[in-house]
Amino acid sequence: MANLKEIKRKIGSVKNTQKTTNAMKLVSSAKLKRTEELAKRSRVYAAKLTELLNEIAQKMHHSNAEGLDNVFFKDASNPKRVDIIFITADKGLCGGFNSQTIKRTSQLIADYKAKGVKLRLRAVGRKGIDFFKFNNVELNDEIIGLSAAPDFAQAAEFISEVSESYVNGETDKIILVHNGYVNMITQEIRQDQVLPVDASKIELSSKSTSELEVEPDDDDTLLDALVKRYVEYTMYYSLIDSLAAEHSARMQAMDAATKNAKEMVKELNVKYNKARQESITTELIEIISGMESMK
Amino acid sequence: MELMKLEIVTPSGVIFDAEVKQVTLPGSEGEFGVLPKHATLVSLLDTGVIVIEKADGSEVAVAINSGYVKVDEEKTTCIVDGAVALSGGDSDLAKALEAAKELLKSAESSNTAIASAVAKVEQIGKSL
Questions:
Q1: CA A54/CA A232 separation, integer angstroms
Q2: Is the domain of A6 the same as that of A123?
Q3: Where does the UniProt annotation locate this protein (chain B) (predicted)?
Q4: Does B15 touch chain A (CB under 8 A)?
């Protein structure tokens, strides 16, 4: 009889878990919708900004025989010091979302260490911070709360410190790793080189025929301002992208958990019924055999 | 009259996308007007007001804090950090005016630029 009670208790607990996971799934899907909208709107801005930056860089490329000599467009194929920024979520329960980012970051660290490159790590999000702290990896900068609620001003402040150290020559390359949103069921690890701006990626296709005029006349003033904005926006956009991916990953994980719980309740119900029948059969046999012996 | 395409993009989305006759922009080196078939130009934008003459001749003003503009023969693209549109016949004009002034005052720009932009916004508010 104790077994029956035990199974019944288990069914209740699994059902409760199912309710929780289902609620979390609903919350995530609502949040995903909002974040997706935000990402969609800022994508236009990001696209235009990149386009403009490309065009100016291209113009400077043409006017200068040695290519770009701006500090933001240096060649960084053999960096000596690299900054890695990685974005994880503040919360777990979202499948492999965080561990994927951590895995890629660890791999990057190993790769650069093998080449003898000096590394500095900057972490956004509690999960990544916890992981690397637990493994005694030194973090240069850490920020909690930004990945759960991306804010442009805060993102800009965070990244400007990094880009300043780049301008000062303290680092040769800045890499940003985050898990990006592809669609409702897919996330993809993205690894972007924030600085220097990758000049090889710049498309050399100009539709306009006339010479590009720049105001203020000093090319660097405009380019510096643009690059600064570009870097800030890359950071901000990555945060939004990461948040959308986090919600979609959590939605998936919670959906799977709900399904598993359902399956488990089903199995436990079968077990419960079997145990119940068994106990009835035993009782019946006891009664019958008792009566037989009284004859 | 010839028309050109004008786009104003902010981090929170596209706020203006239409064919226009003419646009006046607050460049960092001074205000300048753009007509269709303008030579290619890239400029920093200062705190100020973008005045647009639409295809039907009516005027629209957009207050901005800072940004960039890219002009070529067919198209003008403004990439701005913050913008508030002020258009005539709008029931929320008073609110929009307030929002525009708020935006301008919060801009990291020289006081004279802000003051002149605010004055311009007030003037537009009266004329609409």
A1: 16
A2: no
A3: Membrane
A4: no
